[in-house]
Amino acid sequence: MPRFTAEQLEAARDRLVPDVVADGLHVLFCGINPGLMTAATGHHFARPGNRFWPVLHLSGFTPRLLKPSEQGELPSYGLGITNVVARATARADELSAEEYRMGGRLLAAKVARLRPRWLAVVGVTAYRAAFDDRRAQVGPQERTIGDTRVWVLPNPSGLNAHWTAATMAEEFGRLRAASEA
């Protein structure tokens, strides 16, 4: 992965990163919003230390560890990636409550159009803010979007010390098993 200067990363602020989607996915993973490294590279979950790609593999979703630059392979496994908020920021706490709510509405419309079996939001705080569900916990949700079921996963950011890669892989694995049922 290339090294970026602080100026190059800052120049990526507010950039949009294209979704990796297709109709009829098994699971559409949904991040909070792109970080600056993701925006600079154009690859989701690109920041070194983010555990999304290792956990995706450890949980059995992919047969090998993919690099962020290989995100285009995800639809061949029935997987995709989008975000609650499209705008790139250095930190998720730069997003406003209204951005989360609008992101939730746009996400629901996208899910209704693409019709994945499962929407998997990575980050309970983002899910709560986007869907105004203050009681949501990690795991399957009662909410559906059309026929799409919803699962909240732990945030794979390296800053999320409450979850290890192993415990995250267990939760991702529960979703994988449900998505294959």
Describe the fold and architecture.
The protein is an alpha/beta fold and 181 residues long. The chain has a single domain (24-180), classed as Uracil-DNA glycosylase-like domain (Uracil-DNA Glycosylase, subunit E). It has 6 helices and 5 strands. It has helices at residues 6-11, 36-41, 52-58, 97-114, 124-131, 165-180; strands at 27-31, 79-83, 118-122, 139-145, 148-153. It has a 5-stranded mixed β-sheet with strand order 2-1-3-5-4, with helices on both faces. The longest helix has 18 residues, at 97-114. One of its GO terms (molecular function) is pyrimidine-specific mismatch base pair DNA N-glycosylase activity.
Task: Offer a few descriptive terms.
181 residues; alpha/beta; single chain; 6 helices; activator; globular; Uracil-DNA Glycosylase, subunit E; DNA damage; glycosidase; five-stranded mixed beta sheet; ubl conjugation; pyrimidine-specific mismatch base pair DNA N-glycosylase activity; 15% strand; 5 strands
Quick recap:
The chain is an alpha/beta fold. It is built from six helices and five strands, in the order H-E-H-H-E-H-E-H-E-E-H. Helix content is 34%, strand content 15%.
Strand order of the largest sheet: 2-1-3-5-4
* CATH C-level: Alpha Beta
Please state the structural category: alpha/beta
The third-level CATH topology is Uracil-DNA Glycosylase, subunit E
Poorly predicted segments: none
Provide the β-strand percentage band: 15-25%
Order of helices and strands: HEHHEHEHEEH
Keywords: Activator, Chromatin regulator, DNA damage, DNA repair, Glycosidase, Hydrolase, Isopeptide bond, Transcription, Transcription regulation, Ubl conjugation
EC number: 3.2.2.28
Enzyme class: hydrolase
Organism: Streptomyces muensis
